[in-house]
Specification:
Blueprint lengths: L1 H31 L4 H11 L1 H14 L4 H26 L3 H11 L22 H31 L13 H26 L8 H36 L4 H9 L1
């Protein structure tokens, strides 16, 4: 019914407005005391993730036919936020140049760092400028590749060659999914290794909580992105069929 359709729109709008207002207040607090622009500008960029997510999610409820395009905006900003978080941690350490100088001095000293589970029995490693450079590239590639994959998915869906099955090798679904998962694994693993190497240096900034939040963003998005794409495929494929259905079947299709 029309009432049942408006209910999630009203609740979603309320939650989106509340989250946006709270985030704007936090942004204004940082801007009012802008004593450290290098750090606070990155924090503000991360805080803007909440209103962007909330607004695009509510618009996706209101205009479900355009949800896949709204996902593109969200995906672009999400990948940007993950890199911004990494640059924020670099900023806490004094900037990239300071990090390079620090790791040139301390890179090969001490016992090194252990690998995360289940690789904890491998040879210990050292954080050097070369390793920092590789970590930066691994995170940067995700910032570029994620929105690019989303654009490709939209184009392939409109052309009818995207598919939705892991067993169908003739369509591009399985290949895009594979590329995306490799990219997101590289980004997450790089953030994890950076945290292992710098957790003592960043302990005053509580990096574990911040790192856990970013980890949540990555896995929530990777878990939901392909479901959203699947729903958008179903909507796109059934749009023509729904024109010839009864009102009852149309409502059932929208509910699905």
């Amino acid at each position: 019914s029309e009432k049942g359709r408006k209910f999630p729109l009203i609740i979603g709008g309320y939650c989106a407005a509340l989250a946006t207002i709270l985030s704007i207040f936090q942004v204004l607090e940082h801007l009012a005391g802008f004593s450290d622009p290098e750090i606070q500008s990155r924090i503000v960029r991360i805080l803007f993730m909440v209103p962007i997510y909330a607004t695009t999610s509510w618009l996706a409820i209101a205009y479900s036919d355009y949800a896949v395009y709204l996902d593109l905006i969200r995906d672009m900003y999400e990948s940007y936020v993950i890199y911004t978080f990494f640059s924020l941690m670099i900023g806490f350490l004094g900037g990239l140049d300071e990090c390079v100088r620090l790791f040139m001095i301390t890179g090969h000293t001490g016992e090194g760092h252990g690998h995360p589970f289940p690789l904890c029995h491998l040879q210990r490693w050292y954080m050097t400028p070369a390793v920092l450079y590789r970590i930066t590239l691994a995170i940067l590639q995700f910032m570029v590749l994620k929105p690019l994959c989303t654009v490709i998915v939209i184009v392939l869906t409109l052309c009818g060659v995207y598919g939705s099955s892991f067993s169908d090798f003739s369509n591009s679904f399985i290949y895009i999914t594979l590329i995306y998962n490799i990219s997101i694994t590289m980004a997450f693993t790089s953030l994890l290794y950076f945290y292992i190497a710098t957790k003592e240096l960043l302990k005053d900034h509580h990096p574990l909580l911040k790192f856990t939040c970013i980890k949540g963003v990555i896995f929530q998005s990777s878990g939901c992105a392909w479901k959203r794409q699947g729903r958008s495929l179903s909507l796109a494929s059934s749009r023509t069929v729904n024109r010839n259905r009864s009102p009852r079947l149309k409502a059932s299709g929208r509910q699905n």
